[in-house]
Amino acid sequence: MIATIVNAQITLGSGTTTGAYPIASNWGYNYTQQIISKTSINAAATGNITGLKFYLPAAAVLDKSNQWEVFVGHTTLTAFAGTTAASWIATSAMTQVFTGTITNNAGVVEVTFTTPFAYNNTDNLVIAVHENKPDFNSTSDYFYASASGTTNSSMYYRNDTTDFNPAVPIAAGGRAATLSNVTLLGLMPASAPVCPVVSAPVAAATGVSVLPTITWAASPSASSYKISIGTTPGGTNVMNMTDVGNVTTYTLTTALSFSTQYYYTVYATNAAGSSTGCTERSFTTASLSCPTVSSPTAAQTGLSVKPTFTWSTIAGASGYRLSIGTSAGASDILNSFDLGNVLTYTLTTAQQLTPNTQYYYTITAYSGATVSTGCTERNFKTTTAAIPANDECANAVALTVNPDLACGATTAGNTLGATTSLAAGPCSGNPDDDVWFKFVATGSAHVVALSSVVSTGTTTASDMYFQVLSGTCGSQTSLLCSDPNTGTVSGLIVGQTYYVRVYTFAGAGYNASFNICIGTPPPPPANDECVNAVSLTVNPDLACAATTAGTTLSATNSNVAVATCTGTADDDVWYSFIANSTAHTITLSNVVSTGSSSSTSLYTQVFSGTCGTLASVACGTTNLTTVGGLTPGQKYYVRAYNSNGSGYSNSFNICIGTPPPPPANDTCSGAVALTVGNNFAASPLTTSNAGATTDGTTSCQTSRGDNVWFSVVVPASGSITVETKGVTGSGLLDTVLSAHSGTCGSLTSIACNDDNSAGVYSTVALTGQTPGATLYFSVWRYTGTAGGTSTNGQFQISAYDASVLATSEVSGAKNNIKAYPNPFTDDLTISDISKVKSVLVTDISGRLVKTISNPTSTLHLGELKSGMYLVTLEMKDGTKQTIKTIKK
After folding, report:
1. Contact indicator for 193, 15 with CB cutoff of 8 Å
2. What stretch of H or E contains 859?
3. Beta 293-295 vs 625-627: how paired, if at all?
4. 690: pLDDT confidence band, cut at 50, 70 and 90?
5. Closest by alpha carbon to 407, among 548, 294, 239, 520?
């Protein structure tokens, strides 16, 4: 924008391009806001704006667009962020400086402020114009405007029928990078800025980069900077007052000449003009450096006769040259051979060297006529081996295709003396020293295998790679890359020729001999697809007497989603079975790998539904996989797949087994009642948790599951001990025992034991319990691996209390008074009833079931249920005697 001074005024914009600011006269109503930057105003100091002048054609008619309200304000905004009602600058943040009728006076509309606006010369300025007279004039009556250089620096509303209320704004119609050609009356423009202080390059600097960075300090009131550079004092033949923007550093993008003196000047500029009298400086650019060579290394031996040269880039260099000779300083092989602007070069077949020969070489850089000098000469010695005949694709050796995978016919190969003829592309490793083979496909897939790798230098089998390509030499597509040993290439066309490139990755001079074989995989198995799934026999138990042999060799991937499975599916085969239970097991056994597969890379997945619309039910490894939630009578599909990648497969046996039903006491509601004895041996129960599921919880061991339940009635003493022991031959080797009070479905854990003092089986001893109350005990299998793996099986459990007398103790007790017969049927006889005052009969739970006052010697107890009772004789002398009896 151009600022001019006429009696303290600043004019912004010029020309006769029309626009929609401050109003668009061919609309009924207008409201606009324009943001003018402080830099554009470029005022000399703070001051009062006394009015505005807008410009338009001298003949423009504004009789229907002449009622204006004008607002002016400060703002930190540089542009309008959007067009919503909230995007306008509020009238409360501005000052209304004019309201009334405007007039076109020979192409100028002057708005004189009722009160001057004090501009702070710090912020940007916003000017808002509201035109609110109904109806409109012609488009030929538009005002003049110019591009602002700032996106969205202005915003407008216009409508033929609806006026705009600036105090209550609504959404705008749009934004623009346009401002009015306007004069700010009352402000004095600033003068041109002073010259910036330049810091780099320093005066008369030498060795400066050909892409130098020029740096200076900011100049007050500058809006941008300009640079001139020439090859003579005052010259501008390189840069002529080039505006580099409002920055304080600038790096040339086009290289200067090497070893050349340049003269340069930096100017500051603003709307008032550019600084004058600025000091010119000079600098001399550096000479053209020698490239740093990385290969061949100094005095390297065993190089190919077509070696590869590699070096670093030199800033400003337009190319590089290579000289090679058979003696120091000589160039009898290549004399300043132009390599072009590259950083690596491999000698061609026409340039190949002689084996077992010492060579000297130098790489230089050039830029135009300037050439780097004094560059270091290096030497290397070529390998003693000649280049193999199949060093190039065009001389690829034909391979015999074997009809199977036995590889009866192999071909010997060697990378010794070979050169690199092709980049790796998508292959592994960084290729070095490659040789070529070819074969004619006899099937849609073939296996390529390297064997008998013998190294030269430090090459190992893991440093050998091969690549299979289609097409013709010089125009090929990579089909397979393998590291190392073997790989299967698929999708081949019978009768078409394919190429195999074998290369090393150990570094220059490291090579190997090898045998290469092309094998033919067998056809895919019959059950390669879901629709041909093999039907499996469902075993009635887990013994898996009926198994089915299978293999993934030559199988293809049927692309079924494996979102919930382990591994990435590759080479899958299919089976099906009819469920006869809600749960079955899938077992893979006798897994034998092909390639580098292992049994842990073979997986199974179970599906419901039909082929093409399958839903995954469960996934597992080669070990036992239990699938629950099945519907008896429904068909399910099993996919066995390998996850090691193409070419890796397994043979195996697959079995469908049926787990046993859960025991009756698998849940609390089916708890088995234990008889309380006076020690473990009194009434042990041999039982099993086979088929049990995990039900409930306990606190003393987190590694537990497959629990079964028992109940015990607390004896009269309030004490009870429950203990587990092992059964010879059982797989259940370690138990966890928990005790609970309450009722099934609302139990409270009151005790827990993992390992008792005798070993890995469990014991819980309780005291202070309520006689007659029922407690629940759960026996869990320890599922961790500490001490060995435990499986479900038989165990012993017993409940006892030392205060409870055994039957043998009753019959053998030496009491003064005896009860007989014991056990009894209906009547119990007391040997000396004369000393007895009363008789109390309680059951084993401690509940009083009968009281006999003034008893006779025969106690009639026929109404009692069969079981154990305690008969307490209350003696006339105040003592008591308790006899344990059993009613048949």
Report:
1. no
2. strand 858-860
3. unpaired
4. confident
5. 520
Query: Which residue is it, tokens 């230098």?
Result: 457
pTM higher than 0.85: no
Angstrom distance (rounded) from CA 21 to CA 25: 9
Q: What are the start-end ranges of the E strands in 280-357?
A: 281-285, 293-295, 300-303, 308-311, 319-325, 334-340, 344-346
Instruction: State the Cα–Cα distance between residues 707 and 693, nearest whole angstrom.
Output: 6
- Would residue 193 count as lying in a domain? no
- Residue 641 burial by Cβ neighbours in a 10 Å radius (0-12, 13-18, 19+): buried
What is the CATH classification number for the domain harbouring 148? Answer: 2.60.120
In angstroms, the Cα distances linking 319 to 287, 333, 372, 373 are: 15, 20, 11, 14
Domain count, the chain: 7
**Least confident segment among 244-248, 254-258, 510-514, 652-656:** 510-514
- pLDDT by residue (tens digit) across 764-812? 999 999 999 999 999 999 988 877 778 889 999 999 997 775 544 443 3
Q: Please tell me whether the peptide bond between 684 and the residue prior to it is cis, using omega within 30 degrees of 0.
A: no
Q: What does residue 760 show for φ and ψ, rounded to 5 degrees?
A: -90, 0
Nearest CA among 510, 508, 456, 512 for reference residue 310:
508
| Cβ pair 387, 417 in contact under 8 A | yes
Strands 18-19 and 143-147: antiparallel
CA–CA distance, 49 with 276 (Å, rounded to integer): 30
DSSP E strands in 399-537: the ranges are 411-414, 432-440, 446-456, 464-472, 475-482, 486-489, 497-504, 511-519, 534-535
Tokens of 549: 């042999």
**CB contact burial 259-297 (16+ within 10 A = b; e otherwise):** eeebbbbbbbbbbbebbeebeebebbbbebbbbebebbe
Q: Give the C-alpha separation, 783 to 704, whole Å.
A: 5
Same domain, 592 and 709: no
Whether the ω angle into residue 169 lies within 30 degrees of 0, i.e. cis, is: no
Q: In whole angstroms, what is the distance from residue 724 CA to residue 715 CA?
A: 19
Q: pLDDT tens-digit profile of 527-565?
A: 989 999 999 999 988 888 999 999 888 888 887 765 556
- Three-class SS of 194-213: CCCCEEECCCCEEEECCCCE
Flag whether 323 is in a domain.
yes
Average pLDDT over residues 408-436: 77
Comparing 48-52, 481-485, 490-494, 560-564, the range with the smallest average pLDDT is 560-564
From 885, 790, 773, select the one nearest 830 (Cα to Cα).
885
pLDDT at 587: 87
Amino acid 756 reads N
HSE, side-chain direction, 13 A CA sphere, residue 192: 13
Same domain? For 839 and 698 the reply is: no
Q: Are residues 815 and 777 in the same domain?
A: no
pLDDT confidence of residue 661: 84
Helix (H) or strand (E) holding 128: strand 124-131
Q: Does residue 190 lie within any of the structural domains? A: no
Instruction: Say how far residue 746 (Cα) sits from the centre of its chain.
Output: 44
Q: For residues 182-212, b (16+ Cβ closer than 10 Å) or e, as one string?
A: bbbbbbebbebbebbebeebeeeeeebbbeb
Domain of residue 227: give its range. Answer: 198-285
Boundary-marking domain end, from 124, 159, 185 = 185
Q: Could you tell me which of 848, 839, 843, 856 has the C-alpha nearest to residue 886? A: 843
Last residue of a domain, one of 257, 285, 313: 285
Query: Is residue 755 situated within a structural domain?
Result: yes
More confident residue, 778 or 39: 778
Q: String of b and e for 58-91 (b: at least 16 CB within 10 Å)?
A: eebebebbbbbbbbbbbeeeebbeebeeebbbeb
Among 584, 533, 524, CA closest to 555: 524
Q: Write out the H or E segment, with its range, that includes residue 811.
A: helix 807-812
